[in-house]
Amino acid sequence: MTELIEKWAEVGPDAAPEDADPVVLECARLLTAEPGGEQAVLLTFGLVNMAPYVLGRRGAPVERAVVDALAAAAEALDARLPRTGRCGHPAHPYTGTLEEWDTDADALLDAPDVQVPLAAWDEAAACPHNAAGWARTAADVILPGSVDGIPEIVPEDHLSTVRSLGSVLNDYPNGDPFWDLDLHARPPGTLSRAALAGYVVVAHANCWYAGSGRIRQRSLLDDMIEGLESVLPLLPDGACVHGDGEHPALGSGSEQEAAEGIHLQSPGGRAVLREEHEDGYGASLEAWTCTTFLRALAVEARGHLREAVDFLFGTRETAHLDAVYLRPDGRLDIAPLSERHVPFENERASEEAALWAARRYEGLGPDGPAPDRTVLLLLMGTAADSLELSYGIAREILGILRTAALPGGACAHADGHAPGRERTADRVARIAHLYALETRLAPEDADPGQGFGSERLACPAHLAEVVAKGIAEIEKRFEAELEAEEKRLAE
Prior knowledge:
Structural class: mainly alpha
Largest sheet: none
């Protein structure tokens, strides 16, 4: 055994198949021949220790040979227990590993190391029942659903993740949702079949919220796209053996989908999914890990995230809005334009109206009609501090505000330019009234300014305040994105 154990030590995740496969297959052959024999515990843990290598041999003969040997050993080692089914140990280390499970590849490293002499092992670790537990666990990691008897022990960290993702995907995050989603943006370094499935399923569940505009950091979407692209080579494009209705339905919403994706990432979680399937609802583990099914999810999620990046951080076409916000004579149709600057009515329409107003201001130039330029500048300031702008739109408005040509003149309004805590709806009503006054569309005595005449909005000092505040609001809100873009441009 000493010579064999020394060879096992050389079989790591990066070992060459031509060197490692014969070593693993020999260990599997010996264990299959005597799965309950005198050396069965050592042979079992030899395969468990080499399992991280086997994870990279997906579909190769060595994968099936190892799983079959471990399954046979699990049954035979349990049969060595007394008729009572008890060995005398109150607990076994493998259950503690299941409770603290992180990722499939990392958790396998918690198994007893066969390079350490058996005499130095803890008694419970060397127990045949512990070896049987590890045999089932490793077989499930290599080929999900291949063995029975995995305890339904879902790690508390995974349950906590299910709860936190659920709150985010229901749009009631407990903190900054960026961090909850960022944890799952990229796949773990070494992927088992089920870890790959879990990553893709969670990414698909998260992509709709990530692309909704609730999270403004582009880095999250870029990382999710890159992560999905990195696993596509592991998901060949082709037909599968599953018939209609055998793949997971995913019809219960993103929260449930994310929970199922997290369950796929631990043996105990997979046992829960398997139990559900055996009870008549839910898909089999074989269907959950089907590469055809997973590829479709990954491609759909990547496509949605790419569209979201373009929409949230790219440029948008606004020329079609000329027909909405301009009168036939080419002047502003102030009523619909100002009304669109009230938040929470229609966020997409509001931010596109704000972008149209900014581009219209820039397009008019310094020689354009003063009333139009004044109200467009005021609407830009309103958009900057009142609307939920996507970064691409905010960035363009910021650039226009920074180069705005402001009128000169002294301020004669010692008591201010607006009432305290003015609602956005009231402010845009005053802006609309100002334009109506300036273009002779409203009588002077019909001012909604609550004692502050709309003409005060056009005060040069007030316009300078509006521009400064708008710039400060956007720079503060998108500080990280602006810094990241500056670094990209510098590179």
